[in-house]
Amino acid sequence: MQRTARLLALIAGLCAAALTTEALAQKYPSRPVKIMVGFSAGGPVDVVARIIGDRLGNKLGQPFVVENRAGANGMIAAEGVAHADADGYTMLACNSSTITLNKTLFKDIRYDPEKDFAPLTTVVAAPLVLVVNPENPKTADIKTVADLVAAAKAAPGALAYGSGGNGNLAHLAMELLAQRAGIKLIHVPYRGGAASEVGILAQEVLAVFDPLSAVPLVKAGKLRALAVSSAERLPALPDVPTVAEAGYPGFDISFWVGFFMPKATPAPILQTLHQEIVTAAKDPAVAEKLGSQGVVSVLSPADYAAKIAKETKELAEVVAAANIKAE
Description:
The chain is of the alpha/beta class.
């Protein structure tokens, strides 16, 4: 009799928990949701967060309010979300570096991307564009990745490239190419991607993995695109091959923006947010707005987690091999 009573009590408890969770999902959200952004207003992460937040607010009936906590490559905002109540009312919008790179580069990181966050989906992915300056006499004849590698092999350690800083994704992309190609390059870190772009236009460096701001310059003939860093070609530059197509299979590094919740957030809330974000990103009107920040790219939570694990491992190997230190 006692066993039967305990069993019935357990079943009743499970049913009550299920009903509570279901009721929570049905009335969610019942108050404003905060979207934490670890970068300043107007940047790619902020822009994506506001576009998606507006759509979620309109669809779910409560404001999704962006709060910018810039600093430490997104770590301040990420730490805030990691330690927030897992009730569905604090969300993180961040870039790939915050999740896949910080744990490797910084010793004082106070969150664990795998243990502290539940991934919802990516929203946009922005490949880098490997460019040279056609007006620079030293690169005038470099028209392919093979040409660049040949030039580097002809003068080991003499070819200088720029990036937005030590540990920047553009820095790692070039180091990965150098490791795959067996070449030695000189890294010139600038204070941000825009500054490195100025550097190559001023002929201070010979090559750069540039963000999508390079596309208009490529189309205007100011820069020459050799390849893109993603697994697929960039629609804006359909004739430019990927690095993988240029002879380095598996090469795939992109800047992405995605969303996360605290790890213990109830599953029904995670499912609701995932579905609504995916639906929003696929809406033509929203996708057009997102297009200014990259290519719309959505993933299931499982595929998102697998992508993070793969990139984290690969980038950690690049950092170790090149002995890269954060600034």
